[in-house]
Amino acid sequence: MQKLLQPLGCSLFLVLALLLTACAAPATAPAATPVPPTDTPVPSDMDLWTQKANMPTARWGLSTCEVNGKIYAIGGYPDKTVVEEYDPTLDTWTPKADMPTGRYGLSTAVVANKIYAIGGTLGNWGTTLATVEEYNPVTDTWTKMADMPTAREGLSATVVNGKIYAVGGMVARGVGIWDDLRTVEAYDPATNTWMTKSDLKRSRNWFNAMVSDGRIHAVGGFTPYEEVYDTVTDTWTKLAPMPSTTHASSAGMINGEIYIFGGQVDAGGAGTSIVFEYNPTTDIWTTLPPMPLKGHHMSASVVNGKAYIIGGEDGPYPHHLPYLSTVWEFVPDS
User: Fold this and answer.
1) How far apart are CA 274 and CA 60, in angstroms?
2) Which residues of 220-239 are buried (b: 16+ CB within 10 A; e: fewer)?
3) 59-330 — its CATH code?
4) 63-117: per-residue pLDDT in tens?
5) Pick from 92, 196, 72: which is nearest to 134 by CA?
6) What's 269's DSSP letter?
């Protein structure tokens, strides 16, 4: 009988213990929070940006362009003749032959691997330029070409089918007096000749002309009016406005999208960290997370799907030291 009671007592004890445990537990236990794998990166705005080697010569109002994977930073203030080549692969800078006509507020465009430096200003009142000079990166030499019909600074130049379109800008009329321009002129490097085209609908300066699907998008400046130019029909059409005006911003085209970087929201104001994305197909603007810097009168060029925002300044008017020599690489979030 004693042997029979021993297993029975043990069983009763186990049942009692289980009942006590069940009573102590809450009726509904909270669900466990999933723990992400330790190798999953935490998204951040800085994931899109990388600071690269500084440009040797700090300056604003420069123009940059890309030839065979290298970026050429040309002109700018205060060292208006300086030309420096940036290799994004090596993250290194190399000095090149000075531009014969020192200037800032110019624009550059590339045809057949040659760079055309167009317009700009000497920096003295009333010295807006019509000058065009061709740079050959292979021989590191400059050649004087036919002047633009209309002298201007703060213009934007771009290329469609081997022709350079010099769009907008302004011309100095006296001390502190400028006239904004609607002028559009096309240059043919093959014949070294210029042709007048239909004016912009709105005058503008220090803006960006970007090509998408053979059409030229004029965006930015203090004109809250974006428009697109059809080179075949020689006509301009109004587009959706940017979320805000951006004067002296820089821009790049990546994977069919136009990106706007920095600039001034107010006349003579300090630089901003604005980043806008524009889809030319849908005519829709999107505001993206800001840049890690503030700036205006910078220049941007794109190499292998990455934009490089170079130089500029960050303070309000009048322009003051220190000017920027920074280089930031931007890769859009896929």
Assistant:
1) 18
2) bbbbebbbbbebeeeebeeb
3) 2.120.10.80
4) 999 999 999 999 999 999 999 999 999 999 999 999 999 999 999 999 999 999 9
5) 72
6) P
User: Interior CA angle at 316 toward 311 and 320, to 5°?
Assistant: 60
**Which two tokens mark 213?**
């699907």
Q: What is the dihedral of CA 82, 83, 87, 91, to 10 degrees?
A: 0
Angle, vertex CA 296, rays to CA 294 and CA 298, nearest 5: 105
Four-CA torsion 104, 185, 246, 75, nearest 10 degrees: -20
Domain boundaries, the chain: 59-330
Question: What is the signed CA dihedral for 241, 264, 311, 330, rounded to 10 degrees?
Answer: -40
Provide the token pair at 37: 């794998």
Q: Examine residue 88 and say whether the peptide bond preceding it is cis (omega within 30 degrees of 0).
A: no
CA distance 77 to 103: 7
Contacts of 163 (CB under 8 A, 6+ apart): 186, 187, 188, 231
User: What pLDDT, on the 0 to 100 scale, is given for residue 53?
Assistant: 98
pLDDT of 156 above 70: yes
CA 37 → CA 34, 40, 42, 64, distances in Å? 9, 6, 11, 42
Q: How far apart are the first and last CA of the chain?
A: 78
| CA distance readout (Å), 112 to 100, 136, 291 | 21, 10, 33
Distance of CA 12 to the CA centre of its chain: 78
Q: What pTM does this model have?
A: 0.86
- Residues with Cβ within 8 Å of residue 28, at least 6 apart in sequence: none
Q: Which amino acid is at 201?
A: K
Retrieve residue 87's tokens.
């290799």
Grouping H, G, I as helix, E, B as strand and the rest as coil, residue 14 is helix
Q: What is the chain's mean pLDDT, rounded? A: 88
Say what the pLDDT of residue 15 is. 32
